[in-house]
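Lecture 7, part B: from sequences to assemblies.

Below are the input chains for today's worked example.
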Amino acid sequence: MPQPPDFTTTLDVQLVASSQAGDMIAFEELVARHRDKIYARAFTMMRNEEDAIDLSQEAWVKAWQRLKQFQGDSSFATWMTRIVINLCLDQLRRQKRTRAESIEQLDEELGGVERQMPIVASNPTEGLERAELRKRIDKAMIQLSYEHRTVLILHEFEEMEYKQIAKVMNCSIGTVMSRLFYARRRLASLLQSLKKEQKS
Amino acid sequence: MNTELKLQALLDGELDARERREVEGLLAQDVQSAVLMQELKWMKAAVAGNEAEVKLPETREFYWSKIERSIETAEKQAAAAPAGRAWWLKLLYPATGLAAMVAVMFVVSGGRTTDGADTESVPEDVNAISFRSEAEAMSVVYVADENGTFNPVGQETKNEPEADK
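Predicted structure of the full complex, as structure tokens:
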């Protein structure tokens, strides 16, 4: 029985080159290396395990079909992440069209609500253990609309600039800025509430 | 851009040198802006690098199997697509030829003229001649008898000209 190839010392660029030449075993190794990251990005955007699995798998299929287009301008992981982000955004837009908007979402879209929020005067994350901080941030982010959550994810986790986010989300830079501002202010307010809950 | 968004842009490094100086000047003078800036800084620091750790809840083999199946299905469909096109083309070419032939025959047979000119057609297989005059709105069909002599067998006249009445 033939032994499976050992890819432990093989770089991503070498695996990508082999995959571009049609080597599916090399591609499977790329999937194995980056599947958690790609799934995690889909999950933080969709907040649903089933959707995240399906969309991340769809992203890998698309990646295989478009491998020839990958020129190595960014890392393979970054390229893959862009694919899954686009798929998630398409899905979220479709879902949004079919569900009724909540009053809060309408307020968020209209803008101005963030200016009525009182400024948080003490750091709501001060003294928290990292695990607890992550848990609270995750809990607070669930309460944001997908537009605000996505802007925050793309800016803070993917480290994208305003204009890159605007391009991905198909909106103006001004919209990106106001969504990011709202998301941060709302997050501060939610984390403050969580801190108060903890104390009481 | 309003002041609040400028503060945020300063925090995110999205301002040019002139705008940066302008916003920093504002921060030094306006306490409310400074407090808001502090809140934004806390949030940026709290979120960056603190994404919840999420692990794929499926084994490597199970997760890959669906991807592999999808790739194979897509490739089979892509391979079948050119054959499908060839099947259409096989039908398309004779159909186009037939349509062209019918169109030529239709025009030649005097079924339609567009410029009012008189038309005469001689279909060889039926041994008949048709004549149509658009000017006089008249069609005449001559059919050859056993001697090969053409005789008019049908004549249709519409809107007979005033001079003929």
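Note for the exam: The helical segments of chain B are 3-11, 17-29, 31-47, 60-108. Keep this in mind when comparing with the next example.
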